[in-house]
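Structure, all three chains, one model.
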Amino acid sequence: MHTATATRISRKTWVISAVAVCLALLVGVCVGAVSIPPADVLAELGNHLPFVHHSNNSSLNSTIIWQLRLPRVILALVVGSMLATAGCSYQGTFRNPLADPYLLGVSAGAGLGATVAIVSNHSVAHWVLPIASFAGALIAVALTYSLGRSALVGRSSTALVLAGVAVANLLTAIQTLVQQRNAEKIREVYAWVLGRLNTAGWGDVRLVTPYIAVCLIVLIRYRRVLDIFAVGDEEALTLGLPVNRARAAVIIAASLGTAAAVSVTGLIGFVGIIVPHILRLIVGNSYRVLMPLSLMFGGVFLVLADVIARTALAPQEIPIGVVTALIGAPFFLYILGSRRSADLT
Amino acid sequence: MSDNSVPTLSVDHLSVFIDKKPIVCDISLNISVGQWTCIIGPNGAGKSTLLKALAGILKSEGSISVDGNDLRSFSEKDRACWIGYVAQDPVFPRGMRVFDYVMLGRTAHLNLLASETPLDTSMTESVLRDLDLMEFSHRDVATLSGGERQRVAIARALAQASPFVLLDEPTTALDVGHQQEVLELIDRLRAEHKIAVISTMHDLTVSGMYTDHLVLMNHGKSSVSGTPHEVLTPEHIKIHYKVDVDIIDNAGFPMVLPRRTLQ
Amino acid sequence: MIKKNVVVAALFALALSACGTTTSTAPSSTPVAEFPVSVGTGESAVTITSKPKAIISLSPSATEDLFAIGAGPQVIAVDDQSTYPVEAPHSKLSGYTPNVEAITAMHPDLVIISNDIDNLAASLKAANIPVLIEPAPSDLAGAEAQIIELGRATGNSDRAVIIKITMEHDISAALNLLSKPTKPISIYHELDNTMYSITSDTFVGQLYKMAGLTNIADAAPGASSGYPQLSAEYIVKSNPTLIFLADGICCGQSAATVATRPGFGALQALTMPGAVVMLDDDIASRWGPRTPELLHNIVMAVNKVQGK
């Protein structure tokens, strides 16, 4: 006679996740274009803790660690968490393991907003570019939502996805047109589109963390609801879930958070699909488990990807979006090959 | 709760239109807790549609009320506290454990963002025990056999603890042994849990054996309703199914035998 | 300033003629048998049969050269980036995404480009239009050689020589004003807001070298390309004494915006007045007759930071 229990995250998993996050942060701060011995880095970090006053780093090294590396790594952590959690949320609410946080046109809208800001020369003021891309993303999602809303339960998710594809294609076409007519700005636009963390400062971190934190909290609280979506809209309704309302809440939180994230880092792809999916292969399909783990390992993934972006082809910095694609794909294939493919939904 | 000791579901002049075509026309029913009502009828009669309308999946006209309260004015959660539903072809998500699947039934009793309480866990556990599913509790629902799955789906509806349970073709995919097993189970639970069951069924004989109230639907309308003996007559079956049958008595239950004229 | 020095140069030329050379002193009023002429070398060699009267310039530097040497009236169109001089016939033609049909539709008899993109030269040659390629030179001598070559190609050799001599004179004058730095002064020249820079192997880089300055980009990873992209960490670590911004117009950068970049607040150049110098984007990206102005700005900045 065994007692049965609901699926949840084991203590061991929590510990492993927390350790992974800390290690990733450490690696991220110790690596950079200018080589600073790890001991000095740790001393510098300790310097900012009360009562610990130990480092005799030069003020330049101190500036590099505290003003350049640390905010960058923290931004990677925050943005990675958001993208992975948003991706996981979309996968749950649309019952589609290939859904990513850009599904409803967020990336196309953000890209268009950023392109318009860059070619109109207003990107100069530090705050214009994030606001323009954020606005673009939100407008795209609003457009998708109003086009795709369908009264029939069971059709609504498909309608939304189709509307998202249409809106994304439209906005991407407009963006391409704008880019072509302002060819001299192409390099700057592509630098944004491929994603970058190299201009991150504490200002960026302060700008987006509040939005992302709120969205993450909301999404995590919806993890049980995502498990309900798994049985389909009709059955979910009969179980008592207000399907349309719940889906709207998840989409809004995920889109808002994603829009905030890409507004400062540009379009970093793959994190939203790969991280939840790799986790799925390891811990199963329960969103109760996947959501918190996606949050943590999304951050770890992006921090490590950023380290690779900075070091693999030094002195060149590879755009982070390229790195996430290049490391995500083979890793995914490896996991795929080592397990029964029947384990996949 | 009204001052009736037994909750009653009242359906008045219910109609369902799909793409402007009437699929269910003007159905009226009264079902009280403790009863088992079965909707029968030829293919395309509108049986599943009726159930979906009662479950709130499809929009309908007319009224559906419990003890005088219009169900349409209820939130999804409150409605689910009254009416549970098992689809004809339920979705069994790959990778979901039986325990978690059954515990989904507790959704109706939880606020949207709340987590399950120990009460929910123990209710789920007791339902699994009742249905002899404890040994499966950690299995992936998608790996179960047809009969086991059906039990799991019913378990979820029971965990939902709603007085009215809608079952759409609960035995269609089952072999004769499992069919009997599931029906006996539902009957037992109906008595023990004091729930009302509304089901649709293809097999006329079986529907006559287990239920106390039959509704024969055709073209969306309720053509005949009453006890199995009243409904299952050769005339009614000839009219609605367009086939000749013999009805013989089988330990007090009407048994429908197809008649075949040899050329 | 240039006008005054043309007078000086004219006096020079008179003096030269008095020494018995056969150089013509009057600017291009006496017809000399200058055509047909062969200009360019190797692959880009071209023979110009008669004095071109319908020149198209797709290179902003070449545009400035052409107008300085008096070939202005012979120019029918310049590209969309040729902003100087103002009276140049502006058009929508692009030197980055050249449209062969648009160019040939204007019936030019000479086209001057700075890079051969999309096989432009071959396409124009196929249409029987002479093409002259004048790429970015690596030093001042190269820039001056281009002026002379353009003079020969357009029938303005005399003026070209005068412009060349004027340039040399202005360069020397600027260098004379320089107070040679007693301790090494390092500079960072910024091309755009993604921190692309130039090494001493480039034309503008040479000017910094002439002024005795150390360029932090020379030691940067990727310096071999001549246009390395520097990382913020590297710039902070190198802590240049002077910062020259050549991206004020294209990318809106200024001392104020640089100060807001993470980590840059620690740079010494932001604490010393005048250590962040705004250069004219155009002058800093060309190798035309306004180059002495650029050197002059550099020299003034070096002097100022030494308190002289």
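The beta strands of chain C are 37-39, 46-48, 55-57, 75-78, 110-113, 131-133, 186-190, 214-215, 242-245, 276-278.
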